[in-house]
Amino acid sequence: MKRIGVLTSGGDAPGMNAAIRAVVRAGIYRGIEVYGIYHGYKGLITGNIKKLEVSDVGDIVQRGGTILYTARCEEFKTEEGRAIAIEQLKKFGIEGLVVIGGDGSFMGGVKLTQLGFPTIGIPGTIDNDIPETDFTLGFDTALNTIIDAIDKIRDTATSHERRFIIEVMGRGCGDLALWSGLADGAESILIPEKTEDIDQICDRLSRGLERGKRHNIIIVAEGVGSADEIAKKIKEKNNMDTRVTVLGHVQRGGSPSAFDRILGSRMGSKAVELLLAGEKGKMIAIQNNHIVAHDILDLLTKKHDFNESLFQLAKELSI
Ligand code: F6P
């Protein structure tokens, strides 16, 4: 293999640039050329592809977002779209591809592999919703961004003796809510994996009030429902006023943490190593601090492991 490509797809995540840099430099270090594909699968179809040199990925390891841009591409989901993409890869002489993104992006990688084009995936999403990897790229940074925001909210919550409901990202996976809730001592954590009814939340608020607690933090993952709705229900049931903060896309931005920079670097280098070893259809993962690879097709049939013990611990500590 003499030439490979790299693209980012789906929602951006801090640490993607570190992974791009690693793919480019690990490739050049091993004597191959690396091409950047811009705007995800869309750029693969339109041929928005450019050779990347060592200096093109300088000064990016510390930057959030992705220098290759990202997009969600409907056309690539069609057979015609994928056929054009393969033609473009051939035209540029690219023989292997690294896809950095979430499970939707990996589906595209699997399709390319099935069409005979070797593809390796790197799990890049703040949601931490990919199976068989302890962490996805961007989760740690997003978690720290959330904690920083909650700490600030806590200052005003304490001063005004108010209850806050904070909505964080995570449609199908509550890891951002769970980990930030534990790290920040939230009274209630609402996640898609566990149904907790409004009565339980209200009871906890009342119990807290009885023992003199006059401010509360409730964290809700967006997949559970809107924070405004929960605020309305608490008002109806307990006649308690709350304030709502939806953190939104601020969670996706920012300079990656040291952990995400290192994870991106390790995963990017491993992806190149695998492609050069003739591997395909694999996703890089981190397990017990080892960088390993799993079959993507296998992964797509599994669900990310819910950390029950962490959930129980958060409950135990928020009595
Ligand atoms: O997949 C990452 C994610 O940040 C989700 O947590 C969130 O629901 C979604 O992306 C938002 O996507 P968009 O930026 O396209 O609205």
TrEMBL record:
Organism: Sporolactobacillus spathodeae
Subunit structure: Homotetramer.
Residue numbers annotated as active site: D127
Top EC class, one word: transferase
Keyword terms, alphabetized: Allosteric enzyme, ATP-binding, Cytoplasm, Glycolysis, Kinase, Magnesium, Metal-binding, Nucleotide-binding, Transferase
EC number: 2.7.1.11
Gene3D superfamilies: 3.40.50.450, Phosphofructokinase domain
Role, per record: Catalyzes the phosphorylation of D-fructose 6-phosphate to fructose 1,6-bisphosphate by ATP, the first committing step of glycolysis.
Regulation: Allosterically activated by ADP and other diphosphonucleosides, and allosterically inhibited by phosphoenolpyruvate.
Pathway stated in the Swiss-Prot or TrEMBL entry: Carbohydrate degradation; glycolysis; D-glyceraldehyde 3-phosphate and glycerone phosphate from D-glucose: step 3/4
Catalytic activity: beta-D-fructose 6-phosphate + ATP = beta-D-fructose 1,6-bisphosphate + ADP + H(+)
Binding locations of Mg(2+): D103
Cofactor annotation: Mg(2+)
Annotated residues for binding of ATP: G11, R72, C73, G102, D103, G104, S105
Chief site of localization: cytoplasm
Domain (Phosphofructokinase) ranges: 3-275
Name the UniProt record assigns to this protein: ATP-dependent 6-phosphofructokinase
